[in-house]
Amino acid sequence: MQDLHATRLALRAGQTSARTEMAHSVAVAGSPACAHAFTRPLFEAAGTEAERAGSGLPLAGLAFSAKDLFDIEGQPTPAGSQVLSHAPAARADAVAVARLRAAGGALIGRTNMTEFAFSGVGVNPHHGTPANAADATTPRIPGGSSSGAAVSVATGAAFIGLGSDTGGSIRIPAALNGIVGFKSTAQLVPADGALPLSTTLDTVCAMTRSVRDAVTAHEILAARRVGLTDAPLASYRVAVVTNTFFDGIEAPVDTAFHNALRQLRTAGARIEEITLPPLADLASINVTGGFSAAEAYAWHRLLLERSGAGYDPRVAQRILKGAGMKAHEYIDLVQARRGWIARMEAALAPFDAVLSPTVPITAPPIANVAPGAERDDEFFRVNGLLLRNPSVVNMLDGCAISLPCPVDGGLPVGLMLWHAALHDDVVLSLALQIEQALQNA
Questions:
Q1: Is residue 188 part of a domain?
Q2: Is the bond preceding residue 198 a cis peptide, omega within 30 degrees?
Q3: Fewest CB within 10 angstroms: 93, 104, 205, 247, which?
Q4: Rg for the chain, CA atoms, rounded
């Protein structure tokens, strides 16, 4: 499956056209592979946008999808829910949607998601759950909360899947579907027009088919040029954190990750194993519930009073945990996070980036975690494992990219490259080299 860059080259060479590419995207989006991936297809409008886009624009009329929590002019913004399905129509596109359209992108549809973005599993009881693109035999979870966005990219329906990442909601589905997901430093991309989960942790970002496409998507969303460097792989000092990130890891993930490390070392990478003592402090810092529950409850409390019965019970349960946080506890949390970030940044300062498994498990079958009280324990166990590693980066206010590890016929495994805030350009530069090294191994 060609990435955005290769397709743009084919367009310029006259080997394909925006109309042909859009026809292919629409065919895939309407196929069984994308069942439940879209909450609102926009195929006809996308075809018109593709025809009008200039070939010289970065996206040249090619398809992108948008998570259901982004405003699209003239449409309600349900965020994967039923309770907002008839909300007033948005008066304008979200900034991120507008920027992708201005770059020549054609919006193929709104994508399914965990209701109100509050889970890393990707299950939705209202719209159905899109199946992971990597297994055509057993329907497996897509990961969340940007579930449909990931499936739209992994199947070939979209070149860019616009989403959000509060605790891993871009990187989790990217890892489980075998694609690339880049979470930038949050402040770099405006969140205007995106329904919030946690205003402290939310990041607007995207999934793509390659790292070079991730660079392009980020440049459009952030309205800035990435300062890429061609420094050799051996010039970077990279850490692997041995505590926390490997707890509960499945054998296929452990094997794929360490095989990738061996391949990178063979290619010249300087990789050192370290421990990060501040990771042990996260549980006590978040003991009163953390940012997501408190800030989600502040946004949802009146809607829950009016329409709580219409919520996904698992989502409502997590939001309601924020009801008990006191003002002084929230202020303590803000201050504790500030100190924790300082300790983490000091520990990471000697390194250009950190490598970790994106998540410690592969995608389990949807049947194991489907809606139903009898499966709640397994759902929350899986959700906790999926969120644990990537949420560290959100708490750090950092940046991270998940790219596929080479696997020998197994389910996808994600390799996460990350660092603190505003290290985006180094992370992206190094990710390009890591991707190339792993493909050449």
A1: yes
A2: no
A3: 247
A4: 20
Q: Domain range for residue 126?
A: 1-232+357-441
Structure tokens at 79: 């965020």
Cα(346)–Cα(411) distance, integer angstroms: 36
Hunting for tokens 């009008």 — which residue is that?
A: 52
Q: How many CB atoms lie within 10 A of CB 1?
A: 13
pLDDT tens digits for range 288-303: 999 999 999 999 999 9
Strands (E), 218-358: 237-241, 270-274, 353-357
Q: How many domains does the chain have?
A: 1
Spatial contact of 152 and 37, defined as CB atoms under 8 Å apart = yes
Tell me the pLDDT tens digit for each residue of 12-39. 999 999 999 999 999 999 999 999 999 9
Paired sense of beta strands 160-165 and 63-67, if any: parallel
Q: For residue 386, give the CATH number of its domain.
A: 3.90.1300.10
Pairing mode, strands 270-274 and 237-241: parallel
Within-domain flag for 173: yes
What pLDDT, in 10s, does the model give residues 379-434? 999 999 999 999 999 999 999 999 999 999 999 999 999 999 999 999 999 999 99
Q: Evaluate the CA torsion angle 111, 116, 120, 121 in order and state its sign.
A: negative
User: 3-state DSSP call for residue 68?
Assistant: coil
